[in-house]
Amino acid sequence: MRRLLAVWYARNLEFLRDRATLMFTLVVPLAIVVGMALVFGGPPRPLFKVGVLGAAPAPGAHSFLGERYVDFVAEPDRAAAIHAVARNELDLLLELHPGAASAYWVNNDSPKGYIIEKLLLQREPQAHRQAVTGQAVRYIDWLFPGVLGMNMMFSCLFGVGYVVLRYRKSGFLKRLQATPLSAFEFLSAQVLSRLGLSLLVTLILYVGVGRIIRFHSNGSLALLALIAALGALSMISFGLIIAARFSSEELVGGLLNLLTWPMMLLSGVWFSLEGAPHWIRLMAQLLPLTHLLAAARAVMLDGAGALQITPDLTYLGLTTLVFLGLGAWFFRWRVE
Questions:
Q1: CB-based burial of residue 121 (10 Å sphere; 0-12 exposed, 13-18 middle, 19+ buried)?
Q2: 264 to 82, 121, 270, 293: CA distances (angstroms)
Q3: Span between the terminal Cα atoms of the chain, in Å
């Protein structure tokens, strides 16, 4: 028992003296709670998202606009709004006609669209139903790129971060430093290895899941491969910044969670940010996963070409170069 207590005491002192780890153990949960409160806090969240053509109408303009738990979003562009309904980014689109029956658009394959349509027809049974132009997309078709992107994010960030950390803790990096291998060569090998593994796993999931659910995909497979490669490189490089010089598992784990949680919540993995506060959408545009998913969905769901997704590809390429440069600059073979 004395030996057990001695080791227990020593381990506690070791943890408490590692101030960086202690700080992140306390700060990361607090940051996640505060972030979740800012994004999802306040009054009860709307369950449905309805676009209203034109300027934002006053609640008294139509009895349906007074429904609780419905987020009414002003949509100035008719074509873009109908496209959002087809892509499950809006549950329903409403066009008010003062003195006449309203018109609305809904996706037949949307469960939420089915329910909100029933609520609308209770208020205005004579509302005129319009067909959604273009091919309607199921929620699973919209979700699938998000799940692939999320899996790639975890694979790239944790795969690089913890591997390099393990090498550093075991002394493997210290031994490599005595060889002719340069830091650039070592980091390049790590990037290329993780890139190949990530793309292979993504390809297996793409083909395997495709045979099960027959998801919607209109675009070029070569363009999808380019998007996946650039997105993986950007997030691998992001992970290298964390792995560059730390040797504490608790600290690296906290930092990686601090990176992955905002991307998982704000990059549009599970739901569209259509109608979200402007500052949240601005934050989302800073995250590599946001641009990866936007480009992948544009290609898979809309058949977009390289020209339409050039801004997203450019952002992924630039962040890759910036993150690689920072990772190489911060990198240390060993931390004393």
A1: middle
A2: 27, 36, 8, 11
A3: 33
Angle of helix 183-213 relative to helix 221-243, nearest 10 degrees, comes to 140
**C-alpha–C-alpha distance, residues 306 and 53, integer Å:** 30
**By the 8 A CB rule, do 314 and 242 touch?**
no
And the tokens for 109? Answer: 């394959």
- pLDDT at res. 336: 56
pLDDT score, position 128: 87
Cα–Cα dist 111/133, whole Å? 18
Question: Could you give the CA distance from residue 295 to residue 308 in angstroms, rounded to a whole number?
Answer: 9
Q: Which residue blocks in the chain are alpha helix, DSSP H?
A: 2-17, 19-40, 78-86, 111-123, 139-170, 172-177, 183-213, 221-243, 249-266, 278-284, 288-302, 310-330
Q: Residue 53's pLDDT is what?
A: 86
d(Cα 66, Cα 47) in Å, to the nearest integer?
14
Local mean pLDDT, 10-residue blocks, the chain (336 residues): 70 64 58 58 72 74 80 84 82 84 85 87 87 67 82 82 78 80 78 84 80 73 89 87 74 76 80 72 86 88 82 91 83 69
The reported pLDDT for the residue numbered 318 is 92
Give the three-state DSSP class for 334.
coil
Burial of 34 (0-12, 13-18, 19+ CB in 10 A): exposed
> What pTM was estimated for this model as a whole?
0.67
CA 111 to chain centre: 23
Beta strands 92-95 and 103-105 are antiparallel
CA-CA distance, 191 to 160, in Å (whole number)?
Answer: 8
- Alpha-carbon dihedral sign for residues 224, 225, 228, 233: negative
336 vs 316: CA distance, rounded Å: 34
Residue 241, token pair as written in the block: 């910044």
The Cα-based distances of 327 to 19, 24, 75, 318 in angstroms read: 23, 20, 42, 14
The whole-number pLDDT of residue 4 equals 66
